[in-house]
Amino acid sequence: MSGSTKQLFGGAITVTLPPRLIDASDLRQVPNTQEVFLYPDSGISIIVEVLQSVKPTNLEEAAKAHFDALAHDNSAESQTISEVVSTSTQADNLTPAPVLLSGSQAVRKFNSLTADEIRILLALYRVQSKNADLVMSMNVPMSTANGEVVREEDWIAAKDAFNVAARSLRIVNIGLFA
């Protein structure tokens, strides 16, 4: 999987992403606490967001809390967590080891009669010294009410791209979390 290094939040974070992704801020307003990238040929998106730490001190439970918050924000009709994995390799002194979560949500969009099936990948990097959680999520709409479908091979490629991004993410400037 080839990728290119992108600088996020003014260079405070770097991450390897597929080169063909579109920076959503070129198309619409994006909150200062987020970086959003879109696949040009599907509804797949990657979001990196700086958030205040959630209550659970157990990182796997914290990842689940972020997934639940995302389900709430999406008004998901249902949600399922497939897997939560703690990684043990810290990238460097500034970048904590991420906790990885995969799951799915049924989300009804634009008053549709049927819900879209969205697979979600999430990586949580807890920056304890700053009481902050850095959360990277990928949303993959496997099937939508308007008939769009992400093929299984595209899902595998998206998952591979997410895993590369999760392993490559580096915090370069801790001042981002001031």
How many strands in all? 10
Q: Which structural class do the helices and strands define?
A: alpha+beta
Task: Identify the CATH class.
Answer: Alpha Beta
Contiguous helical run count: 2
Query: Biggest β-sheet: count, sense, barrel?
Result: 7 strands, antiparallel
Task: Report Rg.
Answer: 16 Å
CATH superfamily membership, which one?
A: Mog1/PsbP, alpha/beta/alpha sandwich
Q: What is the chain-wise order of helices and strands? A: EEEEEHEEEEHE
CATH architecture: 3-Layer(aba) Sandwich
Please state roughly what percent of the residues sit in beta strands, choosing from under 5%, 5-15%, 15-25%, 25-35%, 35-45% or over 45%.
Answer: 35-45%
Q: Measure the end-to-end span.
A: 34 Å
Provide a descriptive summary of the structure in words:
There is one protein chain. The chain has 178 residues and is of the alpha+beta class. The protein has one domain (4-177): Mog1/PsbP, alpha/beta/alpha sandwich (Protein Transport Mog1p, Chain A). Helices cover 18% and strands 39% of the residues. It is built from two helices and ten strands. The protein has helices spanning 59-73, 152-168, and strands at 4-8, 13-17, 22-23, 34-38, 45-52, 78-86, 99-107, 116-127, 132-143, 170-171. The protein has a seven-stranded antiparallel β-sheet with strand order 3-4-5-9-8-7-6, sandwiched between helices. Strands 1-2-10 form a three-stranded antiparallel β-sheet. A hairpin with a 4-residue loop joins strand 1 (4-8) and strand 2. It is globular and about 45 Å long. The chain starts with a strand and ends in a 7-residue tail after the last strand. The mean pLDDT is 92. Keywords: Protein transport, Transport. It comes from Grifola frondosa (Maitake).
